[in-house]
Design brief:
The protein has one domain: Sugar-phosphate isomerase, RpiB/LacA/LacB (Ribose 5-phosphate Isomerase B, Chain: A, 3-Layer(aba) Sandwich). It contains six helices and five strands. α4 links the parallel β4 and β5. The radius of gyration is 14 Å and the shape is globular. It binds D-ribose (RB5).
Length: 142
Amino acid sequence: MIGIGSDHGGFELKQEILALLKENGFEYKDFGCYDESSIDYPDVAKPVAKAVLDGTIGKGILICGTGIGISITANKFKGIRCALCSDHFSAVATREHNDANILALGGRNIGPEVAKDIVMAFLTTEFSNDERHKRRINKIEN
Ligand code: RB5
């Protein structure tokens, strides 16, 4: 199950990503927002981060205007590894190396096609399970 959430700055891109998830048969839960009224991104980052931590969802996608505020917030939760990506390579690398469990995107700084490519790369790339990457992740957690 994928959890997805945005503030107003990411709302339009979230609609595109929801369609992508649907087209590709991913089960998802939409944590809002549900229109373009102004909201505070921490109010969406928190329930998505908590859902990852309690196992309700396997991975999360968070979108704000830049992706910055919402990723900073998500990374305040111990056990969350939220990666703000604006390119394909980073999306693959953060799954293989960091075992990132949340992807953050900016709705105002990348186009929808680039964003969709990043989402697919993030969702279809497995963690490498390499010992050196596990060691580094353990150091983050500790
Ligand atoms: C909202 O205007 C904007 O500040 C927010 O979406 C995000 O870009 C914050 O990092």
